[in-house]
Amino acid sequence: MAVETKDKVGVRRTTEYTAVTLESQVPAGPIEKRWDEHRFKMKLVNPANKRKYTVIVVGSGLAGGAAAATMGELGYNVKCFCYQDSPRRAHSIAAQGGINAAKNYRNDGDSIYRLFYDTVKGGDFRSRESNVYRLAQVSVDIIDQCVAQGVPFAREYGGLLDNRSFGGAQVSRTFYARGQTGQQLLLGAYQSLSRQIAAGKVEMHTRSEMIDLIVIDGQARGIVTRDMLTGKIESHLADAVVLGTGGYGNVFYLSTNAKGCNTTAIWRAHRRGAFFANPCFTQIHPTCIPAAGDYQSKLTLMSESLRNDGRIWVPRKQGDKRRASEIPEGERDYYLEERYPSFGNLVPRDVASRNAKYVCDEGRGVGDTGLGVYLDFADAIKRLGKQAIFERYGNLFDMYARITGEDPYEVPMRIYPAIHYTMGGLWVDYNLMSTIPGLFVIGEANFSDHGANRLGASALMQGLADGYFILPYTIGNYLAQAKLPKVSTDHPACREVEVEVETRMKRLLSINGKRSVDSFHRELGDIMWNNCGMSRNEAGLKQALKRIPEIRSEFWENVRVLGKNEELNQSLEKASRVADFMELAELLCLDALERRESCGGHFREESQIDGEAKRDDENFSYAAAWEYSGNVSRPNLHKEPLIFEYVIPSQRSYK
Amino acid sequence: MSHDTMDLTLHVWRQKSSKDSGGFVTYVEEARGISEHMSFLEMLDVVNEKLIEKNEDPIAFDHDCREGICGMCGLMINGIAHGPDQTTTCQLHMRVFKEQGITDITIEPWRAKAFPVIKDLVVDRNAFEMIIQAGGYISVSTGSAPDANSLPIPKENADKAMDGASCIGCGACVAACPNASAMLFTSAKIGHLGLLPQGQVERDDRVLRMVNKMDEVGFGGCTNIGECSAVCPKEIGLEFIARMNRDLIRASLAKGDSKKP
Ligand SMILES: Cc1cc2nc3c(=O)[nH]c(=O)nc-3n(C[C@H](O)[C@H](O)[C@H](O)COP(=O)(O)OP(=O)(O)OC[C@H]3O[C@@H](n4cnc5c(N)ncnc54)[C@H](O)[C@@H]3O)c2cc1C
Ligand code: FES
């Protein structure tokens, strides 16, 4: 079908794509055998032929970096792109806590099946069983691979790998490297990638931003990038395109993501025909350092492990401005311990976050802004001694002190929830291919195996599973079967997309309005956080859906972007990203409105029992896959029904 | 928490492009009313918003995670790489200046032959990439790894390797060194991999290739001044350089003996 439509911002879709139906490609048979059998059935690319194929990988994080390195090793020609000055700086680097794997080194009853079970349940029954099972299966290979690369995981005195229990899991399956697990895993992938770059198998493009996707005859065949140093807008062609561009949490402006994290790559692909699944599934992390003022540029996560020893409380009285030390025990409300006696301060992330919001909404929040709750270590210090607390959390306490200027050994920490992770993303089938043939999506950028809620230490696992062990197989299956006529950058489709990108940059630079890009981004973020954040309701979402198009049109009329395209222009980079966030925001709210149930990170106030989330399996046991219709405000909804053959859906309860 | 503000005088290096010669520009009005709770980069964000308001080009600087881990940020602040707190520029907070009574702040890019300035405070650190590509890895392809626990590693070695591996590649060590040497950066990676059993097979080759590359891409030699380690936000110690020097001698001898190319 030829699609040519125009919407408000004047972006025209020029390429064609074939009509798609949602085929999840999930193999049949016993779940333990599905991946093996699928692998056996997949077509292989003959080793000598691999060098005849070129694959574009956008992103050099755990997912993209691992995929690019592995495909280089296999013999494909790889072109890899990232927006930072080095692939080593992808935001995976910031992950602290650890990575899960069903190694059962602790002999504490863990197994592939248990990790699978926990992940499906933790995702509140909104993920695909087959994918999750495969994830749990390959998790064990990841640890082997990383150790072989030299990743210095924590070890015990006997020299074997150490594990800890993370995020309320009942087994110790989390591998970690101090508080820098993401950094070490990423450096492992980066080093393998560097080896392939040196070998000439991977061509690395740093400071190079993908602005659009090239689709030719219904297949993803390339991308258009902007060189961030020279402004050069250029087409790159390949036989398949892989997006590992991370999450879109920055649609909320303030989040724990890096400043450059963006939705542009997946959003542009969405506009070219890739369905966007479950955009409203966003995760909020309860233990972040609260915003200090309106200049706040990002939020910093404090490891969840702090809740093992810290006690969360707020004053019982509204507007109590006394210092923490002046509030006597009887006037403190340890609200999690009271409401959830069996889990206490260790309730899951969404429950902890929502309750913090409620007490702050009641006017009982602490700190200058009133948007904070105490995380108090006084009892733990009394019980275990300052030294023990220092040994467990020394780094985190230092970081807190540096950022806030307060000493958490003396006064309680102040924490507040923040956007942290996005479970939604481009819809992919079992082969990690989107609805555009030849476009694969991996890592946080796809709609992932985490359903409506991700468990701690499982994103690193998924990124590396996709990148090292799944995509390199499934892409071969595609390449071996696809008809891929030779194309060159003279192809009219390339020129058309290039012109669109050039026009977009010119347009942004010529508006010359009154407001900075950041001011728009902040305003958008406020709306998203207030109306589509920790708790959502119909009225709030409808209000957001009215406001977002208004801000978007103001943006296109009143943004001020100085300088020119042909230079390093950070305002222009930001403007182009914010323009896409403005569109994604609307889809996110539409999805949240459509899903009239509470599940995982998505809490709809209309759907609760006794203040707790109420899932509605009868009506919402599906993945919502949105198709761009040519009009951002009117996408088409497709549903992939979710079938549970192994883990029978049950309601979560933490009381 | 109080909302104490400070009025600053900033001297910022402005340079339109690598071809431009560049120079300092002083900002006073734009740097008024800075909250002591801001991070250094948030202070620059505020200055930039004011510049944009006045239709002036904002100051370009590199940053991403703003959590002290990606290594993207890095400024010379009053002559010290990353400023007075031995942390990354993004983790430096304005209260440090307030406490020390400093209101006059000079901000420059990293200065080193191997790190040419791209624009304003942004430099090109590609030379670091080339050092890693020369051998900063263990040659293991996906899928060929033995079970992770088949190779016990003494905790002490694993911990020491982790110390080296914690390098964020920001380049402060080079910027702080009067010779613009990359010894700390290079030795941190050589030490990380050389302390692990997996890294032994390529150990000699690795040090020879990485050190050669380091010289080739324009970094200076080491004269044991120690400024590198003094500014390193991850506190990587000089013992890594000593280790690398020992490895280098060992490898040169071994290679010399066996007459390998
Ligand atoms: C503070 C923090 C702590 C975390 N802790 C944990 C943890 O302990 N355990 C866990 O399992 N998970 C954790 N997570 C989640 C996890 O880190 C991420 O989900 C995961 O690392 C994402 O990896 P990725 O490869 O998909 O994307 P990223 O690492 O974000 O990589 C994205 C890549 O895409 C590139 N890119 C993006 N857009 C473009 C574009 N338009 N053009 C070109 N290139 C582009 C970037 O340059 C980058 O290379 C944490 C997340 C945060 C923010
Ligand atoms: S911005 Fe990442 S270390 Fe400073």
Describe, in plain words, how this protein is organized in 3D.
The complex is a heterodimer of chains A (655) and B (261). With 655 residues, chain A is an alpha+beta fold. Chain A contains 17 helices and 21 strands. In chain A, helix 4 packs across helix 5 (129-149). Chain B has 261 residues and is an alpha+beta fold. Chain B folds into 2 domains: 5-108, Ubiquitin-like (UB roll) (Roll); 125-255, Alpha-helical ferredoxin (Fumarate Reductase Iron-sulfur Protein, Chain B, domain 2). Chain B is built from 9 helices and 9 strands. Chain B has helices at residues 40-53, 95-100, 126-133, 155-165, 172-176, 183-194, 203-216, 227-231, 239-258, and strands spanning 5-6, 9-14, 23-27, 34-35, 76-77, 80-81, 104-108, 117-119, 122-123. In chain B, strands 3-2-7-5-6 form a 5-stranded mixed beta sheet. A two-stranded antiparallel sheet of chain B has the order 1-4. Chain B has a two-stranded antiparallel sheet with strand order 8-9. In chain B, helix 4 (155-165) runs antiparallel to helix 6 and helix 6 packs antiparallel against helix 7. The longest helix of chain B is centred in the last third of the chain and has 20 residues, at 239-258. The interface between A and B is large, with 81 and 80 residues. FE2/S2 (inorganic) cluster (FES) is lined by residues 63-66, 68-73, 88-90 of chain B.
